[in-house]
Amino acid sequence: MFEALTIHEVAAAEAESLIMQLPPEERGRIAARLLESLEPNPRHDAAWAAEIRERIRAVEAGEMKLISEEDADAEVEELLR
Fold this sequence. Notes:
This protein is mostly helical. The protein contains 4 helices and no strands.
């Protein structure tokens, strides 16, 4: 019988079909980005660690205010109106 596919499997199959129609250079560029996304990048990890340290410092110094997820959602909703 037929096996049900998930939305991700369908999307992946559609994306693959479209990508295979591209010229080789474009397929290569996409392939490189996909491979890069699978490998941890120490430069990105270091940059995020520095950003996290800076945010902690700013909160502790009173330069940045923390808000709840609910308040953040409300602010976004207000901005989108």
